[in-house]
Amino acid sequence: MVFNSGLRSRRRLPPGPWRIPVIGNLHHLGELPHRSLHCLAEKHGPLMHLQLGQIPTIVVSSPEVASEIMKTHDLEFCNRPSTAVFKKFSYNGSDISLSKYGEHWRQMRRLGTMEFFSTKRVQSFRNVREDEVHVLIQSMRRSCTQSLVNLSEMFLCMTNNITCREVFGKRFSDDGECNRSKHHDLVMEVIELMGGSSIGNFFPSLGWLSVITGFQAKLERNFKKMDEFFEREIEEHCLSLMNDQGHGDQQKEDLLDVLLKSQKDSANLGFSLTRDHIKAILMDIFLGGTDTSAAILEWTMTELMKFPSTMKKAQDEVRGIIGNKGKVEENDLQQLQYLKLVICETLRLHCIVPFLLPRENSKDCKVFGYDISKNTRVLVNAWAISRDPKLWENPEVFMPERFEGSTINYKGQHFEFIPFGAGRRMCPGMQLGIVIVEIALANILYHFNWELPFGMCYEDIDTTEIFGVVLHKKSPVCLKAKPIHQILQHSSAIPFNDYINRISASNASH
Ligand code: HEM
């Protein structure tokens, strides 16, 4: 079924409109023919028109057009589309990430920027992150004696625990291990639903079919559980604030404390913050903060295992700088310049939010000479842009050195590399997410040597990507961990640096 393109033909969009048979592909965004989109982009240029069901959509695959959309015409293109799933989980557009552009979004984004994404706030959670990384390292130590370490699973648990502590001031898996809690599973189900696609996303007039397929019921069930979880925590926090057991100390405040205080202080805030607004922001933080950092860690370890000399260089750096201090702390991160390049390269090669979040234009406009009608959906294919051979030398190769001395960074100024998006709707949680990745990665490289499971060689490492809102690895990263300090204990006569050299040499000989 093909509908009117919605694009006026004064200058036709090459090569379109492409009509993707979405009916056969409704289950999951991951099944959208992403790789073929990449090929089409290569063949047909930087701007492609697709007709996804009833929704006119353009896919942007070049930095020039991305810059037109997210810089020159940012104001016209900074709306988010409204789908059934987005509406539900954003409490009808009450949040930051999925709300329509306008006064409400501006107020919420300002509140976020001032109160929870600021450098000061990010630093106030330093202890939380360092504690949870310590828990991660201890859990890895315990599990590595018996079996392979499932890093994918542990990274997710760690990021979920960090988010819970930042938001609610407590951990939900209280056994002191890096384990799953029931909230963890719930968050993962919701993220999957967000990445999935119901028929209503592409054929709004057929939205009722979601009831028959069971999608609607699943949506309602998960939303209800998440909402009940938030309600319980809000009630508990309100009670403790009423009893004046709120911490008072800004260093110890959790994000829900901050939101509840802002709600009380609505005169200063300039608008009234409702309970739905608060729950919508909590949803943003859970969905934005959990899966993304875990996926970056998962891909970084995969690439480091594929490139042992890069692994050695990163380990040498961290061990050389930290010496026998026993752990990496956040104060040390500034010195770990190579580690930062490694993370940049992971973000380039495995763009974690491959299509960014979808945008929509609020009025008719002209981009690169093409007329684009109001309400056209825009997907920026940041994944394809950061692997484009016209922009990157050997784009499929993991090579952190390419960023050495380069002015290109991920802060939204360089459109060939936009893993956090750009413009008004750029990710505000970048700092919060990156510091988790840095501190966790630095510590796992410092504390362990990593080996592939017995009988496996580097060519066997699976790098198949699963496309959802977040780009995951098809198979989990399971590795053999050799704790450095155990080796040290067994031969205490040899100085630490000799050990480091010896261990690094054994790593390099792989
Ligand atoms: C570290 C990994 C992360 C990555 C790769 C990432 C990526 C993104 C991307 C690509 C967007 C869409 C930008 C656009 O449309 O131009 C986005 C938006 C957003 N992210 Fe992140 N993000 C990360 C971490 C976080 C964290 C930790 C939080 C919150 C705790 C967060 C909260 C948000 C919010 C609220 C938005 C919506 C902004 C708006 O629409 O105004 N993100 N993120």
Automatic annotation (TrEMBL):
Q: Which InterPro entries match?
A: Cyt_P450, Cyt_P450_CS, Cyt_P450_E_grp-I, Cyt_P450_sf
Q: Which residues bind heme?
A: 427
What cofactors does the UniProt entry give for this protein?
Answer: heme
Name any one GO molecular function.
monooxygenase activity
Q: Cell inner membrane among the record's keywords?
A: no
Keywords attached to this Swiss-Prot or TrEMBL record, sorted alphabetically, are:
Heme, Iron, Metal-binding, Monooxygenase, Oxidoreductase
Which protein family is it in? Belongs to the cytochrome P450 family.
- Under what name is this protein listed? Cytochrome P450 71A1-like
- What is the organism of origin for this protein? Dioscorea cayennensis subsp. rotundata (White Guinea yam)
Gene field = LOC120283526
